[in-house]
Design a protein that fits this description.
Residues 27-51, 475-501, 625-647, 706-732 are annotated as: Disordered. This protein is of the alpha+beta class. It contains 9 helices and 37 strands. Mean pLDDT is 85; it is low at 3-38, 227-233, 479-491 and 631-647.
Amino acid sequence: MADGDAGLHRRRLLGVLAGASVGSLAGCPAPDGDDSDADTPAPTTTPDPETARRLAERFAPTLAFDAAERWFPTDPRPYATERDGETVVDGFAALDGYTRAAAEADTPPDPTVFYHVVEYEASPLAVVQYWVYSAFDQFTTNFHWHDWEVLHVYVDTDADDPQLFVASSHSTRVPNNEFLDPPPDRVPRILSELGSHSSALSLNDRRDSFQRLPLDDLPADITNRAVGLVEQLAELPAAYGLPRDEGLRLPYLVPEVDGAPLYDHERLPAVDREALVDEALTVRSFDALSTPPSDLPARETALVFGPATGTTPDTDADVTYDLVSTTELEDIAAFTGPQLSFEFAVPEFAEDAVASHISTAGTPWRQDRYDDPAADITEPVHRAALADRYDAVDPPGPVNDVVATVTEVVRSADAPDGAGVTTTETALEAVALLRSDPVAAPTFRGVAMLRGVETGSHRLVVNGAGLAPHAEPVEVGGDGDTPADVTASDTPTPTATGTDGVGRTATLAGVGGEIPLVPRDEATKLEVDAEGADTELTALAVDDDFGGRLYEAPLADSDAVYVHRGGAYTTEVRDTDDAVGAFRVNPAVDDADPVRIDRPRTGKASLASFVATITEETAEQLASLGDERDSPGGGGGNGHGASAGETSTLGGLLRAMEAVSGAASRAAERAKGGDRGGADRALEALAANLQRVVERFDGLRETLPDPAAAAADRRFRQAQRRTEQAAAAEKL
């Protein structure tokens, strides 16, 4: 990230934290995974069938589907079989049977929505659940046989008014889309995400789009808490939303079974390539692309489903569905099928690992939220509101989050070719997961948020289509402190804590919460080989001359990070004594071979050697400008030819830089030889020589091309910083 943007990026992430930490999973197990002290859920009962049916019909939702959707709400019972004395629904049978039925029918087969109603005992609070079954789930983070999505409608039966809508997102790692105190006469409308069927609410008068933020007279479709603190992001809610409806690109993957595409399987004769999500939206794999895709079509509503009975005052349905009680399904013991995996590349030293993660759909009536729907409220402010109104609902409990924004690294327009990068907002949603957890989470508006993370050490992985993977260790805290303000430390993995009566901790990943990803065709791996180092290393950071700090994380062993080949980098390591080492890295613009730092050292010798290297590099660049001035047609600075005096001044600067390089090399040699006094004297000379170089450069910079002057200025500042560190270092 550029120096001038560093504050902005950090402020943005503190803003995200303010909302992300309160957008955590309320009512989930304690952050350390031990739920022995968790409150026992309030008991619920099922009302009589007539009451349940009346409530279900009153709030029965309309469901709007993407034009490219393949798997609409249906009834799984036609695909049920008996196995070992139990009723099961087999994945092959459901997918192949549904695909065949859909091809033969004029409308989606057996359109059905199932309902389940519970009442909290000694409370007027009831919850109507609408469970939607699809035969398959194909998305960018995972795919699986069978898919169950749920909409919860919380109703005060005394007032006969809805209190809260909760529409399910991808998993417990991603915040749901929720709306507190909806208009009493508003029937819930769901925009179903293509393939994944994640549910976005659409409650305002713009019925076919998701409105994350208010617009003119249109209210937002969710009331999840804003991310806060920063004016630019003060209104951005922490909720998944509907990326393709919000203008962000989201490529889909092709599911495989046993290493072959799903449509090639012998048990799926009715399934061909056309039965899956359209190829225009699909990539074979994230790493099959050299650059992020830029031509994926946006979302477009096609079919709208509405109930065959009850009222749907806000829409005319294209397809009517049957509203059926889940009691008619509860004899189904399991929804089965072989595991489907999706692969994540994980940067590691020497050779990348491939982590295969799986996600499966559970059976609704075996989930905690089936009998205690409050367990599915992911916005603590919403849960706190219900807890204030109803004794049956407990206040939100403590939770950990890991939060970052994902950006893209590009060449800096202010830098000479191959000498600097910067970061920009990405139009592509990425995917984040922890190596310790098989549940992946897509980003929303470029924000990666993993909720309910256990306290301890984790390795965070972020992948994006056409982007080199990112991985870093993160330390997640869980003390649940609630100071007066949201704060963040300057540790490699800063942690923020917040108030509102919710014990929560949000850990910033990346650099101050920003994770920059590099397009694959411009990426090279920077490997740090710690084996044989003379000290135990604890931290690794990578800075670009123009982009600033791009990577910062703990280092326990040899590691690697992908960098853009258009940059010029300073790699920094620290050891257990907090001693610093620095190394210059200039990847070849046209060579993707890894760059390796072997046995990195810390202390005076390392830092002085770095100053010698970066000074020589800068001198070569400036000398090439002198050659251009002397060539026929050569010009200086801003298009003006250099005078003899100017050329002489450049020569004087180069001679002064030779003195800097010499002093730095002597300091490094004496430090390596154990001569502390000689090293310190050489460093004093180095500092004085470097100051003279900076003064000469300041008098000359107006005659230099702007990119070259900017690059030299940044390198001189880097040299001064490392010289000061070397002088202060205790370690030789």
